[in-house]
Amino acid sequence: MTTHAVRLEAADAAVTVVSTERAVTDWSARYFGPWWKAAGVPPESVCAGPLVTAEVDPDRYADAALEVTRAPHTSTTYAKAQLLLAHDQAAGVIRGVCPEEALAYRSEPGVANLTILGRDPGPVATATARLAREVMRGTLLRDGWSVLHASAVVQDGRVILTFGKKGAGKTTAALAMAHRHGLGLLANDRVFVRPNDGGGVDVLPWPSAAAIGLGLLDALGWFDIARERLTGGEALHPTQDQRVTEALLAGLCEPLWEDGKELKAQVFPDQFVRWFGLPLATGGKATVLVFPRIEAGAAPALQERSRSLSDHDFMSGKTEDRYPDVFELARVDGGGTAESRQEVARRLAALPHHCVVLGHDVAANADFLAKITESD
Predict the structure, then answer these.
(1) How many domains does the chain divide into?
(2) In terms of residue numbers, what domain contains 299?
(3) Does the predicted TM-score (pTM) go above 0.90?
(4) Do 203 and 170 belong together in one domain?
(5) Which residue in 194, 196, 183, 184 sits closest to 148, CA to CA?
């Protein structure tokens, strides 16, 4: 049986995904792509962790699930599904099973190895990418990196960071600048940051599917491209609500809402490049901070209000409840150590800050943002 391996690299960290199921390693290669320099490697070259091994094997899954349920275990919620956990303190092993998704896990935190077993390729591939990212996050956090809740674009190594709560306009600002002015997209929602020896802050991408509202897709000129791709048989990320897919296929670009939350298209990282011609960036140095606010009918303008970073701008444990560190892959706060966060915040505070109001005209927003950040 042939084994496949994909290595992910970011800064000095590396994680390898191994599976006999080609669909699993292909999914990770696609998901992390150029952001984390995902590349196939000879399986025989993989001799040490961090390592994520994933197999589609119904019998092994059943045995692993039974092992968890027969042992003393607890129940929690992970990725919106029930997860049963059993700890073997003597062996240094954490076992888990998610009955809803038919997935079983075996984590060895001490040697940074994680095994995933399942019945079907789709859930196994999705879980493998999710947890490979968590292994990488743990490696980077322990090496002094932190995680900021921010979008980011890069021009000639200069990173423009955009902050704000959901709906503030982080995605709108980043995609507008990248699309209009050819900047590299570094991140849609969060980034890794670390103080460097030169007194600045280095920035790395956090690969993820990007949530883009139907109205923004249309404003960017991407709605018809996405519709054509879907009509041709391609698909967006499987977490996308079916109602969004149906609206795209029907040519309906009005925003969709449910309980006050907008339902959005979920774009794979590689689709930014293949579908929309948007380049992806792999890193840079923080140079300017933007704090946008979207207001219908507004012309882009600077605001007199001031804004500084706070603990809420870091992806700390309080904001990471969808993916708690149940397998002890990070073993530090999900946003980074307190020392790292404090130093990053101190250094970013010294950079230019721009509080802006933006309207719904993507081109006007992009040109305005490019003008106010070009000299920083």
Answers:
(1) 3
(2) 146-209+268-373
(3) yes
(4) yes
(5) 194
